[in-house]
Amino acid sequence: MAYETILYEVDDGVATITLDQPDTRNAVSNEMLGELLDALAKAREDDDVRCLVAASSHDKVFSAGANLAGFGADSPLVHKHFGSTRFIDLFRAFGELGKPSICAAGGHVLAGAMGVALACDLIVAKDSATFSTPEINVGAFPFMVLALLYRNVPRKKANELALLGERISAHEALEIGIVNKVVPAEEFDAAVEDWARKLASKSPLIMRMGKDAMYRQMDMDFADALEYLHHNLTLALSTEDIQEGVQAFFEKREPEWKGR
User: Rounded to two decimals, what is the model's pTM?
Assistant: First the structure.
């Protein structure tokens, strides 16, 4: 299908979803949410896709977050409630993608977009990017983002971001664990591509098993997590790909993944 608010392309195992509403600073509208969910489902089911990159066509802003007009719209509360469930679906879709994802934060990541970025497995940020949950400044609160924020950031820093609504730099975001890597503008595209290609080169089967295990064990208690992960290890040991990977290592060659 042709999208109106995003761009979707696949190149050499890497799917790129580009937020493409620069006139609104990529405000996440209901239409964009629907298209993002469709693109993520497409990437999940496409065996040719081994990694996903979330990017922006705006040169200074990744996304300004949810469309504020929707908060003040004169529509029934029940419509607003069910409309916002798409953010839940979106955050879950990244976690259940079965393939690694990178947020290419080439610009400011604000409000609900923080949830999109944190839902990705890795974040590469341009050194000019900033991060913020400023909802409190307009009488709202980053309710949906909290679920991701408190799973990625130390509690006191998460409190600071949510309660003060102030921006932090990319380097500050790196220090508190939001961002994995910060690079200068001239190195940004190459840094994102480097990681995407590396991720796409891994066994798609083991990557899917590993990603699903990462997502599901996150909130288990310690003993249950160990039992669950032990089960997944045994399943992985039964695959042809793990045998091929070990054999290729000893033979000093690149593995040829079978996906079995």
Answer: 0.91
Mean pLDDT of 28-32: 92
* 3-state class (DSSP) for residue 182: strand
Q: What value does the mean pLDDT of the chain take?
A: 92
Locus of tokens 């409000």: 111
24 strand-pairing partners: none
Residue corresponding to tokens 């590396």: 198
* Cα diameter, the chain: 66
Nearest-angstrom CA–CA distance, 92 and 3: 21
Q: Do residues 40 and 49 make contact, with C-beta atoms less than 8 angstroms apart?
A: no
What region does 148 belong to: left with phi over 0, alpha with psi -120 to 50, or beta? alpha
CA dist 242 and 204 (Å) reads 11
Handedness of CA 115, 47, 258, 256 (dihedral sign): negative
- pLDDT of 76 reads 58
pLDDT in tens, 234-244: 999 999 999 98
**Using CA atoms, how far apart are residues 13 and 235, in angstroms rounded to an integer?**
25
Burial class (CB in 10 A: 0-12, 13-18, 19+), 234: exposed
